[in-house]
Design goal:
flat, mainly alpha, 12 helices, Ribonuclease iii, N-terminal Endonuclease Domain, Chain A, disordered N terminus
Length: 265
Amino acid sequence: MAHSAGLGPASGAIQVLTESALKTAAAWLQEALDYECRDPALLEAALTHRSAGGAHNERLEFLGDAILNCVVARLVFQEFAAADEGDLSRFRASLVSGEALAVIAAELDLGHHVRLGSGELKSGGFRRKSILADALEALFGAIYLDGGSEAATRVIERLFVPRLDKLPSAAELKDPKTRLQEAVQARSLPLPVYAVESISGEAHNQFFEVSCTVESLSLRAVGVGPSRRRAEQAAANEVLNALPSRRSKTAIENAAGDPAPTDQS
């Protein structure tokens, strides 16, 4: 289905998925996920972004998100028998993150079948990660309603089981703020200090600049992002990257207040 298929004549009008486009999407679904949808209305809703007007996929996305998290939680629970709750949560979060879902959706060429309003279409919405991730979750929700929990589980397992072996270690999956905090605590140093340096942009599209300082090691970095949390993580990551070159034993002992060893000769 071409991106323009089924898009009505005027901007702002309710867009309608044509019969031929729907058939193409159904054939794609069967080939990509080995699932034959019995209710075309569910498939149409799952593939419809709210910008297209009319019934869209946000409710199905809500349902699909819950189903996805449940199935993936069971998969990581079974795969990583020695992992504790925190590590299992990190494994699951990595697999179902928006970034990870967008990658899967792109591999499936899902964006080619998503119905968008004319504005989103012109701006390349069929490639936008958030739209792809949401549509994939909506698809899981539609399959659940169409074929039941076993069908949805089978489709999700088909996509996610091969990715279990490719997961980084639980330690690598910790966010930069957590890793930095653990690094300084292991050296008995004061915790990093974060401060908002500036906020710019409109209320709906703000841009944050946050500093992260580990004063005892004379380390400071500034991170930027669309939220305070994202900016803090970026700043923490910069400080983490600076740690190896500043990690001599003497410097850390001095920063922690421990006396340097005396010469016994």
